[in-house]
Amino acid sequence: VDLDTAKQELEEFIPHVRNISDSSIRKMAGRDLARFKQFKKQGIAVKFGRFSQKENNQIRKNVEEFLLITGIDSAEKLLFTSRYPEDKETINRLKAEHLFCEKLSEGIPRPWRLIYYRARKMFDPNNYKGRYTKEEKEKLKKYHALHGNDWKKISEMMSRSNLSVAMKYSEIKSAVNYGPWSKEETQKLMHAVEEVIRKRMETEDANSLSSSEKSHRDLSIDREKLYQKLPWTEIEAKVGTRYWRQCKQKWTTILTNKMTKGQQLYRGTKGLQAKINLIKRLNEMKVDDANDINWEELSNTIGDVPRTYVQAKFYKLKVSCVPFWQKKTFSEIIDYLFQETLPELEEKL
């Protein structure tokens, strides 16, 4: 399929396809177009956003079946082949012979690239390794001085995921403020967030609104877009004096104050009740992986708050209440909170 035809046909399934690079479109034409058409015949729409538990299970099933067919002995070898230079040639040959792309995406109505990234996140043993030690931070600075932004190489040297080392480096690369935010910093943050959201909305509207509609249109967006998938390293650069995680936390605080009209939702009796509700709901969900939690749905256990606020409160809860939480699975953490912490909180209440 030529490039223009590919763009035209893919646009039916991916409205923002014109903003994607030509090389990515060519790959999508090969890997995704036939699958998308098949799903359309079955009345299934192409999905984006959070992966469901059902989709995660399908990825696990697809990976396990591919390992059985090929005899490759681990998901890490399959998805992180470059970590095994001595087996690389054999693994790549098996992947080509047994149609790895088709097998991995079987039964999942999403672009192949997103399925592949999700599988790598699920099966990477270097994910979720806890806080960086002082020694690791020094190593990271040293490796960055040697290899620049080659996060793939640095991640292999540090046994951490690509995203983890990139984000951590952005956090430690320069001196930043750690005290209370000044008025000027807060204004910079709000302008930076507004700028990236406006830019995103303009891109999304480029094909859907006429020029006269655009000129008369105010910025009106779904509330979720105020805090979901914002480019925090870009915002960090615009603010200049804070690293990305501080920017994200401060923005969550600003939004929470706006949404709750300044009420203290997590203090005193209300705070105890919120923790109790949060633990009960997490237990009812019977989820084995934090990635499968719908934090949006959970936010009403505390009040009208952003999902990141709830995630932050859950993090504080597990760190302060669950001994050796780093060594426990997600379901073990929830079991501990439900069996040990919940009765104490209820008694306190």
TrEMBL record:
Residues in HTH myb-type domain copies? 124-161
**Can you list the GO cellular component terms from the UniProt entry?**
nucleolus
Q: Name one Pfam family in it.
A: Myb_DNA-bind_6
One GO BP on record is: termination of RNA polymerase I transcription
What InterPro entries does UniProt report for this protein, alphabetically?
A: Homeodomain-like_sf, Myb_dom, SANT/Myb, TTF1-like
Q: Which residues form the signal peptide?
A: none
Q: What is this protein called?
A: TTF1 factor
